[in-house]
């Protein structure tokens, strides 16, 4: 029996219009009624998912959420931190300089300042609009080297970002967890951070075994939790590399893929 279900949001839980289908809501509700802990596992900050947590009744005292691709795991209502693995201001300065060399835009999430960017751009606007948060213009000169930075993102048109990816120094992959969450978002996190680690830390907190975990995802930043779980489920619309390591491939996000797999493996 599965006791913990972790679900990615964009391309997985959410349809293309950013809504959750009634069938998926009902499947999640039924799983929770069976005593299964259902959590969202996202690259977004908690402020970007609160309305979905409330809509899915995941906002009680014991409900949890994985944010920033597992960099910050916390209780949804009290925001009590279960685990946190961050970058530093020194990392931000290094990646900012690299972004200038590569010719791509950048922004980051600071514990203190929220979403910060040296200049506003199209995809920082996308980030802010998705999450319902403010953009803070900051040239990073006042960010101290020991400042806590949850994640840094290079953001740009897909073809521009791809060129940057192709030219990233090898040392970047040695220093950071690097994930392409969308064609226009490249994310940099602490080397110890990925959704798999986040799920593992949450499972240990809850006393859930690895084989009792089910995860859903579609993109590169979901790969680690798909591999880690006893039942890793890839979406039909997912990246090929995610499908290749999944235990099961369900239907697409547009066709109730999450609901169908929960019905098959949890509610049967």
TrEMBL record:
What NCBIfam families does this protein map onto? Cof-subfamily (TIGR00099), HAD-SF-IIB (TIGR01484), PRK10513.1 (NF007806)
Q: A Gene Ontology molecular-function term? A: sugar-phosphatase activity
Recorded protein name is Sugar-phosphatase
N-terminal signal peptide: none
The record's keywords, sorted A to Z, are: Hydrolase
Instruction: Please report the organism this UniProt entry assigns to the protein.
Output: Clostridium saudiense
The EC number(s) this enzyme carries? 3.1.3.23
Family annotation (InterPro entries): Cof, HAD-like_sf, HAD-SF_hydro_IIB, HAD_sf
